[in-house]
Design goal:
single chain; 0% strand; mainly alpha
Length: 74
């Protein structure tokens, strides 16, 4: 799970579609545990680059689910 979080952070710059596809493929896009771990780490790393990246990822969460839903319809 931590590896997936690290990769997701790196993928933030690749765009929402790529990030949504990755998280969907590894089974974490809709995983409450994944997002709880991301939230906990973001709070622990508050004020650091990694914490800011995790907060950005958390902010995109709902949009990523919508992107994955639209892609499934296409």
């Amino acid at each position: 799970m931590v590896d997936a979080l690290q990769r997701a952070i790196l993928m933030l710059r690749e765009g929402r579609e790529a990030l949504a596809q990755y998280l969907e493929a590894v089974g974490y896009l809709r995983s409450p545990a994944f997002w709880l771990v991301a939230q906990a780490l973001a709070e622990i790393l508050e004020g650091e680059d990694e914490g800011r990246d995790l907060h950005e990822l958390l902010t995109l969460r709902e949009g990523l689910v919508r992107v994955a839903q639209v892609e499934r319809l296409l």
